[in-house]
Amino acid sequence: MLCLEVEVNGKRHSLAGVGEGSLSAFVTYVQLRDHATGTEFPRVTESTFLSVSGFLGHQTAVHWGDGPSRLAVGDTVTIRLVDNDQPDQHTVTPNLPDVASGSG
């Protein structure tokens, strides 16, 4: 089966594969400014993280690893397409709407 082999700084993060379904691996950067600090200077919160996730079939959301993994400046993320019949064990992601039925 087609899998995503994901590495961070040369170390394997996960080997994600679902057979029938979908896979995603992505890096997200978020910057938020909290202007309610009581001063003229907002508090800035920044976060960069890696997520590897997918769907089994049409509706069961899954992820690999312990959820989003924090990244730092200088980290290298490698995503490689590989053929492998033994992906890492996934975890079902709770509390997502049923995307197949359109309810959510």
SSE blueprint:
Elements: E1 2-8, E2 11-16, E3 21-34, E4 43-56, E5 60-63, E6 69-70, E7 77-83, E8 91-92
Antiparallel strand pairs: 1-2, 1-7, 3-4, 4-5, 4-6, 5-8
Could you characterize the architecture of this molecule?
The chain is mainly β and 104 residues long. It has one domain. The protein has no helices and eight strands. The strands form two sheets. Strands 3, 4, 5, 6 and 8 form a five-stranded antiparallel β-sheet that branches. It is elongated.
Integer average pLDDT: 86
Largest sheet: 5 strands, antiparallel
Low-confidence stretches: none
- Radius of gyration, whole Å: 17 Å
Proportion of residues in extended strands: over 45%
The helical percent reads: under 10%
What is the distance, rounded to the nearest whole angstrom, between the alpha carbons of the first and last residues?
30 Å
Order of SSEs, N→C? EEEEEEEE
Which key phrases capture this entry?
single chain, 104 residues, mainly beta, 5-stranded antiparallel β-sheet, 3-stranded antiparallel β-sheet, 0% helix
